[in-house]
Amino acid sequence: MRDFGGLVERAPRRVVRPRSARDVAAAMPGAVPRGCGHSDDGRSLTAGTLLDMRAMAAVGEVRPGRVAVEAGATWREVLDATLPHGLAPPVLTDHLDLTVGGTLSAGGIGGSSHRHGTQADNVLDLEVVTPDGAVTPCSPATRPELFDAVRAGAGRHGVITRATLRLVAVPARVVSCKIPCPGAAALLDRQRAVDAPHVFGQAKPQDGPGWRYEFKAVLPAGSPLPEGAVEAEELPFPAFADRMRPDVERLVALGEWRRPHPWQVVLLPAARAAGVIERTLAETAPADIGLSGVVLVKRLVVRRVPNLRAPADPVLFGLLRTASPGGTPPDRMLAANRALLERARAVGGVPYPPA
Questions:
Q1: 155, 247, 258, 338: which one has the fewest Cβ atoms less than 10 Å from its Cβ?
Q2: Would strands 14-16 and 87-88 be described as parallel, antiparallel, or unpaired?
Q3: Structurally, how many domains does the chain consist of?
Q4: Residue 235's CATH number
C-alpha cells in the first residue's frame, strides 16, 4: 500500500473499517488512522493495524455557525451539506478530497489562512479516542490539553473521530484575479497589502532562466479589483471552492497523479522568507519540480495550535514536486528537500505538517 507521496510502501497486518468511536477504541492502542491517504511521507501507512476512517463520514445537521461531522468525511462532503445554507468552513483546503480528521491532524492551511488561521484554529470541539482506548470529548474549555495535543498532532496523542466545525457565510459568486510580481519580497508585500478573503502566490518557470512570481486574490463578486490586477474571472463560489477538480482529472488521465510526490513545505519567519525562497529557487530547475509540480508562497496566521510551532508572522513555502518521467529522479528531489529544510531551520522555520 502507498500513500499520495508514492515513496513509502507498507502492508498493514490488519485493516479495520470503524463505524463508530467505539470501533476505533477497540482497535487501540497502536492503530494508525487513514482517510484519503494524501500524506506524502508514509505517515498514513503502517505494518500493524490500519484504521480506514472513510466509513465514518456522516455530516450532521447544519446549525447557525456550526456543523458536527465525523472525521472520515471529506471537505467536499462537508460543503455539500453547508453550501445550500450559504455557509462554509472559514478555511478550505485547495483540494477538497481530503478528510476532516486528516487535515485537522496536520493543521490545515488554505487561501483564507491569512485571516482565519488554520483549519485547526476553526474547530470548536472534538471527540478523540486516546491511545488507551478512552472516547474523550475535548475543547478549549474541556480537556484543553488534549484538544491542543491532537490538533496538528499527526495522530500521536489520539485519533480524532468527530469535530464540530465553525461556519461562516460565503458569497454566491466571487471574482478571481492575478497580479504579476517582480520577486518574492514583492509577492509577500502584496499578500499583506491587498484586503481579500482569499490570497496566495505561486512561482512559475519563465520562458528563459529563472522564475516569475504571481499573486492571486479572490474577492466577492462586484468588489473593486486590486491595482495591477489582470485576468479577472467571475465564477460561482462552489466552482471556486472546487477549482482543482478539472486539474486533478487531467493529471489522473495523464498518469501524473500516481507519480511519486516528494513534497516539502516549510513555515518561514516573514522577515527571512523572501531570501530563503529566492535562494532556493535559484538552485531549482523546472525539472526539479516536475511537469505538474507547484511552488506555493502564502502568508498566514496561526492562533492557538501549539504543535505547529510556527514562527511569528509565518510564510508557507511549498515545493510540491512530482517525479515526472524524464525529469529529476525522486532521490535527488528528496536531497533538495532536505537542503531546504536545513535552510528553513537555520532561520527559525519549521516543517509543515509538523515532523
A1: 338
A2: unpaired
A3: 2
A4: 3.40.462.10
